[in-house]
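wait is this the right file?? whatever heres the structure
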């Protein structure tokens, strides 16, 4: 079963990659919806610019490469907050739980919600606002499963429900993620990862908010006029499919410290492709210092630049709550440069047991 899942994942990635005539095409930029699926609220992987496809593990793997979920040591419960594009008032919160199922499998659930703050209500006749406010509800929930085979190859699949709504209009859809990780070396220092994300059903908006009342074009048999309510049908949109291919290698300084180097290629179906590199200094698996740089491939016209091209940095601390206890508390922070705006800050906390 595991071998079949591995083959299906690789075949799906190859089929996706064979259609790269559409990928990385700026002409399709802006055509996809549900782009909040591309936002990473987790602080640990954000310090890598979300490029640690090959080495990510545990709870955060459900956001980038579900195959890494089964490399969790026991269980994790985590919460993270991302202050997006500092100055806009937009933020994203994520909550998740992951646990081992036997020696080789793991299961996880994650919930993320995007907050826009309070937006003033304006009308055609009241462009300065009515005094009221509203806030869209964007959230998604994911259920993931991963299995590791012979401690070398891990595979996983995740199903995510995506919801976007206002008071009287909404859209809902499903997306599927799949991933593979391969580990080799005496200390598992070499890692290769591949993930295919956000492949799902088209979404479209519906609800009373799309209804329009208009006077009839004629009169009925009695000669009186009447009002007709028309229901507009919105155009459907695709989800932002992404293919990630990553490499990772650990350079051991001594038995207590190593430097992990990463490289990653991202193929976007609805925007420009990206490539980047990064590194992490890990001391006794208690203190981690991260940094990465990512850029778009090809020249970009004004207005087509990726907001996250540039530098990302982060740090993590892991410590025991009680001496001799196997349970750990993990604190992570990350900063990502943005253009424009004043950067994105991620802060997360995880309880590992």
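ok assuming it is, sequence goes like this
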């Amino acid at each position: 079963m595991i071998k079949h899942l591995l083959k299906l994942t690789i075949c799906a990635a190859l089929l996706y990659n064979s259609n790269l005539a559409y990928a990385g095409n700026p002409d399709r930029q802006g055509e996809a919806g549900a782009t909040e699926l591309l936002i990473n609220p987790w602080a640990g992987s954000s310090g890598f610019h979300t490029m640690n496809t090959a080495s990510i593990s545990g709870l955060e793997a459900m956001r980038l490469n579900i195959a890494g979920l089964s490399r969790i040591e026991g269980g994790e419960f985590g919460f993270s907050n991302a202050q997006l594009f500092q100055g806009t008032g937009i933020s994203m919160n994520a909550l998740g739980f992951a646990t081992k199922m036997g020696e080789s499998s793991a299961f996880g659930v994650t919930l993320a919600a995007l907050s826009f703050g309070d937006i003033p209500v304006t009308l055609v006749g009241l462009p300065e606002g009515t005094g009221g406010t509203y806030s869209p509800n964007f959230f998604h929930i994911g259920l993931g499963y991963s299995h590791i085979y012979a401690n070398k190859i891990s595979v996983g699949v995740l199903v995510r429900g995506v919801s976007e709504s206002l008071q009287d209009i909404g859209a809902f859809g499903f997306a599927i993620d799949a991933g593979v990780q391969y580990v080799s070396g005496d200390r598992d220092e070499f890692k290769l990862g591949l993930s295919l994300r956000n492949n799902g059903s088209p979404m479209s908006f519906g609800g009373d908010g799309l209804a329009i009342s208009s006077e009839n074009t004629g009169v009925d048999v009695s000669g009186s006029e009447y009002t007709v309510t028309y229901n507009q049908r919105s155009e459907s949109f695709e989800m932002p499919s992404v293919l990630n291919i990553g490499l990772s290698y650990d350079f051991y300084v001594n038995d207590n410290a190593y430097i992990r180097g990463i490289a990653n290629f991202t193929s976007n179906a609805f925007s420009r492709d990206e490539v980047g590199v990064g590194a992490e200094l890990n001391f006794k698996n208690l203190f981690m210092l991260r940094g990465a740089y990512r850029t778009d491939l090809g020249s970009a016209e004004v207005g087509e630049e990726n907001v996250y091209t540039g530098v990302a940095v982060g740090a993590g601390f892991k410590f025991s709550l009680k001496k001799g206890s196997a349970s750990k508390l993990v604190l992570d922070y990350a900063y990502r440069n943005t253009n424009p705006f004043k950067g994105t800050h991620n802060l997360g906390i995880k309880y590992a047991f």
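DSSP finds three helices and 18 strands in the chain. so i think its the right one actually
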